[in-house]
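Technical annex, item 7. During the second reporting period the consortium partners agreed on a shared format for inverse folding records so that results from different sites could be compared directly. Each record opens with the tokenized structure and is followed by the designed sequence. A conforming record, contributed by the partner at site C, is shown below for reference.
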């Protein structure tokens, strides 16, 4: 079973997913999902059928059009939700953040440059380590004050990649 936290507006819901059931806030529902095309699905919840159009807006944000009602959601695993809550709390305590390499590796991609605005939880760099690509996520919302490394450079653990103000 996979547990997700789905946020619509300010309201958070816990959704657990199995092969043929979902549990929404403790209520078990039979579910069947059929893909019609890239963005259109038919969703059967118990005995009700819904036509759902969806678009992935970012890594964890989606838009849905369900029976004429449009809404945007954030979908996170329980662990990711806890991490985001922790980062939100950390951001309230400190506005300056130094982004360090979490491990030695090769800086494949810098997604931001000096002066760019960055949102907390947004991907800011890709670090390759042990033949795996690791997404470095911003712990704060702010402006990139300084970029200390360039794409293609090797970095050691705890080397400063960039600073957010």
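Designed sequence (site C submission):
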């Amino acid at each position: 079973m996979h547990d997700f936290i789905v946020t619509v507006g300010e309201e958070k819901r816990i959704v657990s997913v199995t092969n043929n059931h979902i549990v929404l806030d403790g209520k078990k529902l039979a579910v069947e999902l059929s893909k019609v095309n890239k963005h259109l699905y038919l969703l059967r919840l118990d005995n009700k059928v819904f036509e759902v159009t969806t678009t992935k807006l970012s890594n964890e944000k989606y838009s849905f059009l369900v029976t004429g009602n449009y809404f945007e959601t954030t979908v996170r695993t329980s662990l990711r939700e806890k991490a985001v809550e922790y980062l939100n709390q950390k951001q309230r305590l400190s506005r300056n953040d130094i982004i360090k390499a979490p491990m030695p590796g090769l800086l494949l991609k810098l997604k931001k440059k000096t002066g760019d605005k960055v949102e907390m939880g947004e991907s800011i760099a890709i670090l390759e380590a042990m033949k795996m690509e690791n997404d470095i996520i911003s712990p704060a919302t702010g402006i990139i004050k300084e970029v200390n490394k360039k794409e293609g450079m090797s970095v050691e653990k705890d080397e400063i990649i960039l600073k957010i103000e």
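Residues 5 and 121 are 16 Å apart (CA to CA). The longest helix spans residues 78-93. All partners now use this format for quarterly exchanges.
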